[in-house]
Write a structure and sequence with these properties.
globular, single chain, 5-stranded mixed sheet, 526 residues, Cyt_P450_E_grp-I, binds protoporphyrin IX containing FE, alpha+beta, binds 2-acetamido-2-deoxy-beta-D-glucopyranose
Length: 526
């Protein structure tokens, strides 16, 4: 009796194992005709994917072309590069390429309930809710929120510029990276919760930015525990820091969200009927999410997880792009002068000093004070500054802020560029090589905004990814970077702390978003 049940269990295990292996075999069998580097037992190509992952991916691109195969542990992975190949997959076959590839380390944090990691019907609903709130029209109305942050940030630059008694400008005491990231974080916080942090280095804020940066860097790296199922039990919850960082940001966002509900959504309470809730008109992105939660269409974890997506994705990518744009200005003083002339002609003597002097201590509730700023839009007038518009495109091309996008999962067998790819394959959008290969444009390694001035002949960049999963933050980003640069360039001359013959290092460090190296800067008032 005992022996026979033991045998049955053995048979069941055997059948399950065989099924599992067969399933994997099927993927590898189908994908094996796709070219790519040799891979090692168990680990595949993981050992080559440490550190500067995007540079290795680019090397393989140069060797194997616009479609190649690598192994992330036992996960068969196909890397797609160049616009035509990416279009064939993510647009012509969009439906089967739209799913997110789930990594255990992320799933353990967000339970796949957030925007960036969910799939299927749940994802579609969440995406629709957010996309409705983040349209071009709605984001344009938020320009004054962004402008307010830019003006507060310029006060910080002003302080640096006044450090020298001889009026010849001043040099930042510390690298400005965290302060610039505070700008993009504040834009998201004020957009979502109507709060922001002051622009000084208070230890709590500094720690928050450092945590977000560290989390964003590590969430892009391929961890062995995500790709080698046999090792998972031993590597579970490692690296520890990654999970601690996630939890500490989650704690903050949960607190701010709870506070918001208590203070701002009084109309909906435990006595509200479904009808009351359905009739409630959400005033912003956060309220839209909370409304869907109250309607039981998404879970509270989904609300918090999606807010975290917006805050993390929204601040680190944008912050690094703002930083790289400063590097490009410093490294190319002729471009900076040209931009200064264009901007000061386009936007003459508008009043900018009309912000309230708030009590800048910890996170502030933003006062709702209307001023002449409200009626002034730089962004709607960007047609007046064609060179700046081209400069921003070149920054997005040259420093692709999400170099390998966010991994996808192929959900049906498919043929791309004549190669058959199996369902179940992890798919990587190689934005980095797409923007920087000679097949994209001439002299791709030269920083040259002029290439975007001929609108009939403009190269097609894809910094926000491509297809149904494309970044929902594009509209807000475009306003953030434009208003940021208009103000900074108009008011200040930025240069290398030593002298104009020196240049700033611009070799990005790999992460889910490409990290700009730390730098100090010299600031002179114009
Ligand atoms: C320089 C700025 C930015 C760049 C280069 C960028 C790039 C990207 C890329 C490449 C993706 C993946 C697309 C795909 O999987 O197909 C993505 C996804 C995402 N981005 Fe951005 N992004 C930027 C700014 C923002 C901002 C400001 C926000 C928030 C307001 C944001 C929120 C998100 C979210 C929530 C996703 C996940 C979307 C999904 O899974 O469907 N991003 N972004
Ligand atoms: C909900 O209804 C109960 C009973 O009528 C009442 O005591 C309570 O104060 C109400 N709560 C709110 C927030 O209005
Ligand atoms: C959201 O919830 C409401 C009420 O429970 C329901 O009528 C509606 O169909 C749901 N919407 C979606 C898109 O699931
Ligand atoms: C900035 O300077 C570094 C170091 O000289 C150089 O490698 C890089 O190409 C420069 N970047 C730009 C955009 O000019
Ligand atoms: C802020 O101003 C808007 C319109 O100017 C008004 O509808 C809203 O009630 C104000 N909010 C607060 C908190 O004063
Ligand atoms: C705007 O803010 C200032 C100072 O913070 C205050 O004195 C003034 O009354 C406010 N104006 C309005 C319209 O709320
Ligand atoms: C903004 O413009 C509107 C109408 O265009 C005007 O009524 C309002 O007074 C203006 N506000 C400020 C602060 O200039």
């Amino acid at each position: 009796m005992e022996i026979s049940s033991f045998t049955i269990i053995l048979i069941i295990i055997f059948v399950l194992l065989k099924k599992l292996i067969q399933k994997e075999d099927r993927i590898h069998r189908i994908n094996k005709n796709i070219p790519g580097p040799k891979s090692k037992f168990l680990f595949g190509n993981l050992f080559d994917l440490k550190g500067q992952v995007h540079e290795k991916i680019n090397e393989w691109y140069e060797q194997y072309g616009s479609i190649y195969r690598i192994e992330f542990g036992s996960v068969s992975t196909v890397v797609l590069s160049e616009y035509s190949t990416l279009k064939e997959a993510f647009i012509d076959n969009g439906e089967i390429f739209q799913s997110r590839f789930q990594r255990k380390s992320r799933t353990a944090c967000n339970k796949e309930l957030n925007l960036a990691n969910s799939n299927g019907e749940y994802f579609n609903h969440l995406k629709k809710t957010l996309a409705n709130e983040m349209t071009n029209q709605k984001m344009k109305k938020k320009e004054k929120i962004i402008k307010r942050q830019v003006f507060l940030l310029s006060e910080f630059f002003n302080e640096i510029s006044q450090q020298s008694p001889t009026n010849s400008g001043g040099i930042s005491k510390e690298p400005i990276n965290n302060i610039i990231k505070m700008y993009s974080l504040n834009v998201m916080l004020s957009l979502l919760f109507n709060i922001h942090f002051p622009y000084n280095s208070n230890s709590y804020q500094e720690e928050l930015i450092i945590t977000i940066t560290r989390y964003f860097k590590s969430t892009g790296l391929p961890y062995p525990s995500d790709f080698i199922p046999t090792l998972y039990p031993f590597l579970k919850n490692k690296p520890k820091e990654y999970f601690e960082d996630y939890e500490s940001v989650k704690k903050l966002i949960t607190k701010i969200t709870n506070d918001y509900q208590i203070n701002h959504m009084l109309e909906i309470n435990e006595n509200s009927t479904i009808e009351d809730i359905e009739n409630y008109q959400p005033k912003n992105i956060l309220e839209s999410l909370l409304k869907q939660y109250k309607l039981k269409n998404i879970s509270y974890d989904g609300v918090i997880g999606s807010l975290m997506d917006l805050i993390l994705a929204g601040s680190d990518t944008t912050g690094n792009t703002c930083l790289f744009s400063i590097v490009a200005l410093v490294n190319n003083s002729n471009i900076q002068e040209k931009l200064f002339n264009e901007i000061s002609n386009a936007f003459k003597d508008e009043d900018e000093n009309d912000i309230d002097n708030e009590n800048l201590n910890g996170a502030n509730i933003i006062t709702n004070n209307s001023s002449s700023l409200d009626n002034l839009s730089y962004f709607s007038d960007r047609i007046k500054t064609p060179y700046l518009v081209a400069f921003i495109k070149e920054v997005k091309r040259y420093y692709p802020s999400a170099p390998l996008s966010v991994p996808h999962l192929l959900t049906e067998d498919c043929e791309i560029q004549g190669y058959k790819i199996s369902k179940g394959t992890q798919i990587i959008q190689n934005i980095y090589s797409t923007h920087l290969s000679p097949s994209f444009c001439s002299n791709p390694l030269e920083f040259y905004p002029e290439r975007f001035l001929d609108s009939n002949n403009e190269p097609k960049i894809i910094p926000f990814g491509i297809g149904q999963r494309k970044c929902p933050g594009e509209n807000i980003f475009e306003i953030e970077i434009y208003v940021f640069l208009v103000n900074l360039i108009k008011k200040f001359k930025l240069s290398h702390p030593i002298n104009d013959n020196y240049q700033l290092n611009d070799r990005g460090q790999f992460g889910l978003s490409l990290q700009c190296p730390q730098f100090n800067i010299k600031v002179e008032s114009r």
